[in-house]
Amino acid sequence: MLNDLLTQLRRYDLIRPGDTVTCAVSGGADSIALLFALYLLREKLGIELRAAHFNHHLRGEESDRDEAFVRDFCQGYGIGLTVGQGNVIPGEKGLEAAARDARYQFLRCLPGKIATAHTADDNAETLLMHLVRGTGLKGLGAIAPVNGKLIRPMLSLTR
Prior knowledge:
Largest sheet: 6 strands, mixed
Number of helices: 5
Strand order of the largest sheet: 3-2-1-4-6-5
């Protein structure tokens, strides 16, 4: 996995020495895998690694357990962590879209590059969703490896 991640990072020039990279961490397997991989590669890449977690408070105690897990993980490895939180109110697009919008609003306020753990599986799912809903050429591209300060170094990896 580390070699594949390095290949993706270099292929799209996602990270450069001296960059601050904040890994968005939900507490799920994909984001923890990305955070740990970046932790293992941080010296080789010459980056300052941080983590960020957004607690949507959508699942009650389970959301709080995710936050506690991320806090413990980061503390155990000496990774700086920024935690955001908010009560998400569904809008016209629904609860999931409102949660995503709140999370990305939080992440975009953080310094440096923001790494998310979207995988090839997520990319395929997004492409299929776009096709079902009807899309133009832009939608056929699915998830981009770079979108402003957001980077997605795991797009070539499957779960």
